[in-house]
Design goal:
This protein is an alpha+beta fold. The chain is built from five helices and seven strands. Bound molecules: flavin-adenine dinucleotide (FAD). Residues 17-23, 40-43, 47-50, 52-56 line the site of flavin-adenine dinucleotide (FAD).
Length: 158
Amino acid sequence: MIADENKVNITTEILIIGGGITGTSAAFFLAQSGHEVILLERNEIASEASGLNAGTLWQTGWGTQPDLSSTLSMGSLEILQTLQLDLGYDIEFRQSGALKAIQTEEQLDFLQIEVQDLNSRGHSLNILTTQDARSIEPELGSKLSGCLYYYQDAYTIH
Ligand SMILES: Cc1cc2nc3c(=O)[nH]c(=O)nc-3n(C[C@H](O)[C@H](O)[C@H](O)COP(=O)(O)OP(=O)(O)OC[C@H]3O[C@@H](n4cnc5c(N)ncnc54)[C@H](O)[C@@H]3O)c2cc1C
């Protein structure tokens, strides 16, 4: 019911304010579960951070004991796969893996312990020699100490 030009009275079970990834995801899954949802966005959908980010999804797999971090990252990966591959939305999703440069021998020593620990807990992450990393990305500098290789990493443009 419209009370005056600037005020609108609406009734809904769930009102979501903000049409970024948080609001739209909540609206989507709540509506899918049968709830009545209204989403209010002051500008356009995804007009702030959700429309401007790099679209990368860093992750190292579920691990043997999934925690909040792996649930969020792997859960997101599965949603993106479903949107692109099952529902046919072209979000330019690619699971191409990602490299992170290791600049010094000290970083390499530290990361070797970190990677060993992560992999012992069921995650999947490798350290590549610079030579192996350059066979994936030939533009990498040859003086690096190596690269972390997140081979399940993904990104999406839209
Ligand atoms: C430069 C940059 C790069 C990033 N890169 C990555 C990346 O590679 N990978 C990654 O996972 N994350 C990345 N992020 C983070 C990611 O973009 C944010 O965590 C995410 O988009 C936040 O979503 P949100 O819905 O919480 O917020 P937003 O996208 O900011 O949405 C909030 C919405 O609420 C609306 N709003 C606010 N107040 C009101 C109101 N009173 N009434 C109505 N509407 C309102 C706003 O207009 C906006 O549309 C990046 C962020 C930035 C800035």
